[in-house]
Structures are given as structure tokens and as C-alpha cells.
Amino acid sequence: MTQTSLAPLESTIQTTNIWLNEILERMGWKDQHRAYHALRAVLHALRDRLTVDETAALSAQLPLLIRGIFYEGWHPHGKPLKERHKEQFLAHVADAFRNDPDVDPEKVTRVVFQVMAKHITHGEVEGIKRCLPAEIRSLWE
Prior knowledge:
Blueprint: H1 7-27, H2 32-47, H3 52-59, H4 64-71, H5 86-95, H6 105-119, H7 122-131, H8 134-137
Helix pairs in contact: 1-2, 1-6, 2-5, 2-6, 5-6
């Protein structure tokens, strides 16, 4: 039996690893599980504050595997959340690291946003920012 591969799956795994490695490098971490938790936590916190239309627009620019992480466990009813403050947003990120108290949720969020901004279009980043309250939007800068 010959081994065959599916190019789209190999490509999305490679791209996901690029994103995770960029998070690792910017955070100064060595553990890829931490980078995965960072990406997942920030994506979920962001997703739940976007409109359904903006969620779909953003997901269209995400690699297939990261898109799956983005949508994991999503229930669009009652979205976007009406939280207006940075601390509320960061609390959701911090919750993913409740067993890792040395992690700074604001730094994690800024790093994940930097990596996202590097890989999605400027127009999409601006569209996301327009959907967010000023305090949360400031995390993109």
C-alpha cells in the first residue's frame, strides 16, 4: 500500500505550526502546548465579541486547522458579547491559563493579535477593530 497525502491538510498543518512557532518566539516560550492554548484562548475571546458576519469574514482568512480551533464550541446565539472593557476580555484569556499563573494574558493577547495581523489582510484587521470597543481594540496596537 502506498502512502498518499492530502496537500490541503499538510499545508494547514504547516501553516498552523508557523503561527504557533511565531507565538512561541514572541512569548519566549518553548512549549508548543502553551502557544496552542494562547492562540485558542484569544481566538475564542475575540470570536465571541464579533458579529456573526464578522466572525465568518475572519474565519475565511484563517488556515483550515486554525479555523476549526476558532469555531470549536461556538454558539452564535447571544453574540457578540456586550462586554466593553479590556479586563473582561483578558479574563477570558487568563481562564485558559488558570493552572499557569506566570502567563500575562495581556501580553498573550497582543502577541496573538500581532501574529494574526501578519497573516490576514489589513482590511480584515481593520474590520475586526471596528467591531470592538475602544479598550479591547487597543490590544491590537
